[in-house]
Write a structure and sequence with these properties.
Blueprint (H helix, E strand, L loop, with lengths): L4 H14 L1 H4 L5 H20 L8 H14 L2 H7 L9 H23 L10 H16 L7 H15 L10 H17 L16 H11 L1 H18 L3 E4 L2 E4 L16 H8 L1 H14 L5 H4 L16
Antiparallel strand pairs: 1-2
Helix pairs in contact: 1-3, 1-9, 3-4, 3-5, 4-6, 4-8, 5-7, 7-8, 8-9, 10-11, 11-13
């Protein structure tokens, strides 16, 4: 049964590799590399769980727990994915987090020479769950909500066997955990996996940003854009679904920066349309390079330069 986890994880690795295109030229690129490190560690763990590999339960459980901890890192990376802070975020947040969560395992390895599997104490498990809640909660309310539910379930199933809450029986939960991770990557928005992102529709910019960075950063960007809108008296406002007219009724279509529909036809012809796109790109310069933004916006829109870190 443990062998089934390997093709599942290979599928996760394939899906993760396909995300490199959308994260290129953004501060989310680091999350891609953290995700790949986590998937590779899970694959090594799956191999160690096979009966044909002579690995002690101690080493197997250490790798098992390390894979669970590394699965947190892409989510934590995204919580700090804004310039200039992203430069220091891995050194002052992610690496210390890994060390803190791994410390019980390190202590057991250094203090006990037996071959028994490690058992992570409850306080560390609770801390792990809090980090998982913060990282995954950032995506609830986006197009990644369902995917994140499966991802959280998969991470918890991988974690539980190495806790003191149950005996180390990797064959019980590791395989279902890998299946949940595979489902999570399969349920990510399909537009994340498009190979050619050049000349993407302008409305995709906000949707891709919101679903890639999560609600926390989307709300921050939305508030910043709306400050300009109020100051310059635009006839549109930024919402979590895109730009929308101030007098838009329930029957009007959502006006995501270029989305087709009666309301948005007015947005495209409005004098504020080009200005709103320019301001959005200016705010997003903290997250994305001009190379990324140019995939969505026409050449007529002047893009801001990447800020100095």
């Amino acid at each position: 049964m443990n062998a089934v986890a390997i093709p599942l994880l290979l599928f996760v690795a394939r899906q993760t590799l396909r995300l490199k295109t959308i994260t290129r030229a953004t501060t989310a690129a680091g999350a891609f590399y953290w995700a790949m490190a986590a998937v590779v560690t899970c694959l090594v763990t799956a191999v160690c769980h096979l009966d044909i590999v002579a690995v002690t339960p101690r080493i197997s459980s250490v790798l098992h727990y390390l894979s669970a901890v590394l699965l947190l890192t892409p989510l934590v990376h995204m919580l700090g994915a804004r310039r200039p802070g992203i430069t220091a975020w891995p050194w002052f947040v992610i690496f210390p987090l890994i060390i803190i969560l791994q410390w019980p395992a390190i202590s057991e390895l250094m203090g006990d020479s037996s071959d028994a599997a490690i058992r992570i104490p409850s306080p560390t498990v609770v801390g792990f769950m809090l980090v998982l809640l913060m990282g995954s909660g950032n995506y609830f309310g986006t197009s990644c909500t369902t995917s994140m539910v499966f991802g959280v379930a998969g991470i918890m199933l991988i974690l539980l066997p190495v806790t003191e809450w149950m005996a180390f029986r990797n064959e019980r939960l590791f395989l279902p955990g890998c299946a949940m991770l595979a489902a999570a990557t399969a349920l990510l928005p399909r537009r994340f996996f498009r190979r050619d992102m050049e000349n993407s529709p302008p409305e995709q910019l906000w949707r891709d940003f919101r679903d890639l960075y999560g609600i926390v950063w989307a709300k921050r960007v939305m508030d910043r854009v709306n400050q300009f809108a109020e100051r310059e008296h635009w006839d549109v406002r930024m919402t979590l679904d895109g730009f929308q007219f101030l007098d838009a009724g329930p029957e009007d279509n959502t006006t995501e920066t270029g989305t087709s529909g009666p309301a948005n036809e007015g947005t495209q012809s409005s004098p504020a349309a080009a200005r709103s796109m320019q301001v959005l790109c200016w705010v997003l310069r903290r997250f994305a390079d001009p190379e990324f933004l140019r995939r969505y916006v026409p050449d007529s829109v002047e893009l801001p330069q990447r800020p100095v870190n």
